[in-house]
Amino acid sequence: MKLGRVEGTVVTTVQHPFYEGRKQLLVRYLKPDGTAEGDNYVLAVDIVGAGVGEMVLVQDEGNSSRQILDAAPYGPVRSLIVGIVDDASIG
User: Taking the domain 2-84, which CATH number applies?
Assistant: First the structure.
């Protein structure tokens, strides 16, 4: 799992039927101290109702994500937003 911040939404006019009714968000990965992890971004399916600017927990492993969505073994998904983070601290 990775820590990230929602940077924006993705809107598509043509998409795979799997994504019908699913919100897709652009997430920038964060280091544990909350700073950006370079230019690392991921497009993730939101299952918790996250919004732009929120810190989130991203499940970034295809098989686990498909199992969560009950889409195994062939659902076209790799990354899911599985939590909204209230606080993260080191030490």
Answer: 2.40.50.220
Q: What does the domain layout of the chain look like in residue ranges?
A: 2-84
Question: How many C-beta atoms lie closer than 10 Å to residue 47's C-beta?
Answer: 16
- pTM value is 0.89
Is residue 83 helix, strand or coil? strand
What percent of the chain stands above pLDDT 70? 100
pLDDT band at 1 (very low <50, low <70, confident <90, very high): very high
Q: Give the helix, strand, coil percentages of the chain, each rounded to 5.
A: 10, 45, 45
